[in-house]
């Protein structure tokens, strides 16, 4: 079985086109998840908590 028969459909399925607002929403969601993961680990991810 050729690896390209598996890889090519996956790359096509993961591709998407969207507008600027959708891109911003996507990036915000990703950053929220990253901040939550880092907070659980006890570190800071690009933000400083107000004291």
Shape: elongated
What helical percentage do the residues reach? 55-70%
What is the average of the pLDDT values? Answer: 78
Proportion of beta-strand residues: under 5%
Question: Concise description?
Answer:
This protein has 51 residues and is an all-alpha fold. It contains two helices and no strands.
Describe what this molecule looks like in 3D.
The chain has 51 residues and is an all-alpha fold. It has a domain at 19-51. 65% of the residues lie in helices and 0% in strands. The protein has helices at residues 4-14, 20-41. The longest helix has 22 residues, at 20-41. It is elongated and about 55 Å long. The mean pLDDT is 78. The chain crosses the membrane at residues 32-50. Keywords: Membrane, Transmembrane, Transmembrane helix. This is Cysteine-rich protein.
């Amino acid at each position: 079985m050729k690896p390209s028969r598996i890889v090519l459909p996956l790359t096509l399925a993961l591709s998407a086109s969207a507008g600027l607002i959708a891109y911003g929403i996507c990036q915000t969601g990703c950053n929220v998840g990253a901040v939550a993961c880092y907070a659980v680990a006890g570190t800071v991810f690009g933000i400083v908590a107000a004291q």
